[in-house]
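Supplementary Methods, section 5.1.

A reviewer requested that the exact input to the structure prediction be made available. We therefore reproduce it here, unchanged from the version used in the analyses.
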Amino acid sequence: DDTTDEDTLKENFKIENEDAVKMDTPGTYTTIVSTFDEDGYKTKANVYVIVNPSKAPIITGGVLTTVKGASKPTREEYLKVVKLSDDTTDEDTLKENFQIENDDAVDMLKAGTYTTVVSTKDEDGYKVNADVNVIVKNSKAPIITGGVLTTVKDASKPTREEYLEVVKLLDETTDEDI
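The structure derived from this sequence is encoded token-by-token as follows.
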């Protein structure tokens, strides 16, 4: 309503059937909310409240580095760079349910950075996704994987040693850390 300000609509806002939501029983519940304007015109809408049986699992993506011409990264290689956790489901189950959603996104014949989506689900069936960046490097070049370096305003610029602490250097020709 053009004549009623938002504060008045908020003041007149009401949850009609708040008791409809059973917080101890998983499911989807329909609640009705309403408000009215200065002229007394009332309007209603449905709000759907979803009560999950547990929290969803957590999956954190990472960076996987490989060389051009090699085989696509394996499921085990992906599992080394992601973190899986859940309050109620053990890590073995999360690993068992782990999937690479779009493995075809990586072109092993072309150097570059490719984003793949990985997922897992807990014992209640809650599925979560995360991104893993797959870096395909030229096979003769050493590999450097970037990181995150945090500093504060007005501090000295980060030193070479601080940079080296957050990156990973690898020479694929020797298969050893540099």
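The two ends are 67 Å apart (CA to CA). These observations are discussed further in the main text.
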